[in-house]
Amino acid sequence: MRQVPAEAVSRFLPPDEGGRESAVLMLFAAGEHGPDLLLIERAHSLRDHAGQPAFPGGAVDPGDRDAVDAALREATEEVGLRRDDVDVLANLPTLFIPVTGFVVTPVLAWWHSPSVVSPVDAGEVARVVRVPVRELADPANRVRVRHPSGWIGPAFTVSGLLVWGFTAGLVDILLRLGGWEQEWRPGELRELPAHGAGPTPPAAEGLRAADRE
């Protein structure tokens, strides 16, 4: 993962100057059904991205040492993760989200001592789930979604969630780079509702996983 070139992940690369630094935590653990990945469902009352599945994460604050520190802090604040239980493995290439101006560093980590986690603030996080990798890789759980703007991208139907957009693009890349990806044919196309769909996700469109679909 440390050797993955940025161009292999996305065609939207950070600008030389500007952009709001942020980070997301892609946390793997050994679960009852093999390796799993931690996801959150954002609160349905939020103004932006209401009800959408995502990785824990957010903007880098002035007190954060770097993107890794920001990702761990956000996970602690959102789901109560104990950072001492986590080994950070690598950062994926930093990506740019043009519609928001965020420069995002995906942080890959291993949860060596999993503990019970849950929403710390119900106003921000509605649910926390550990999704088995084998469910994410199962072709039966893979669909495509169409944004009201006309954008079409990959998605996953797992644990009662519809994972789409930027998060789904990163999951697809993780499956491919981790050797878990199974052959699947894009079939079902789901329409995202106009309410709650948010702006067109150009960063997800720029992810190389979406390019292939």
Helical stretch tally: 5
Mean pLDDT: 86
- CATH homologous group name: Nucleoside Triphosphate Pyrophosphohydrolase
Compute the gyration radius: what is it?
16 Å
Regions with little confidence, pLDDT below 50 for 5+ residues: 209-213
Domain count: the total is 1
Secondary-structure class: alpha+beta
| Named CATH topology | Nucleoside Triphosphate Pyrophosphohydrolase
SSE layout:
Layout: E1 20-31, E2 34-42, E3 53-54, E4 57-59, H1 67-79, E5 86-91, E6 95-97, E7 102-111, E8 125-132, H2 133-137, E9 142-146, E10 152-158, E11 161-164, H3 165-177, E12 189-191, H4 202-206, H5 208-211
Parallel strand pairs: 1-7, 9-12
Antiparallel strand pairs: 1-2, 1-4, 2-3, 2-8, 5-7, 6-7, 9-10, 10-11
Task: Provide the descriptors you would attach to this structure in a database record.
disordered C terminus; eight-stranded mixed β-sheet; 34% strand; single chain; 213 residues; alpha+beta; globular; Nucleoside Triphosphate Pyrophosphohydrolase
Structural features, described:
- With 213 residues, this protein is of the alpha+beta class.
- The protein has one domain (6-211): Nucleoside Triphosphate Pyrophosphohydrolase, CATH 3.90.79.
- 19% of the residues lie in helices and 34% in strands.
- The protein has five helices and twelve strands.
- The protein has helices at residues 67-79, 133-137, 165-177, 202-206, 208-211; strands at 20-31, 34-42, 53-54, 57-59, 86-91, 95-97, 102-111, 125-132, 142-146, 152-158, 161-164, 189-191.
- Strands 1, 2, 3, 4, 5, 6, 7 and 8 form an eight-stranded mixed β-sheet that branches.
- A hairpin with a 2-residue loop joins strand 1 and strand 2 (34-42).
- It is globular and about 45 Å long.
- The model is unreliable at 209-213 (pLDDT under 50).
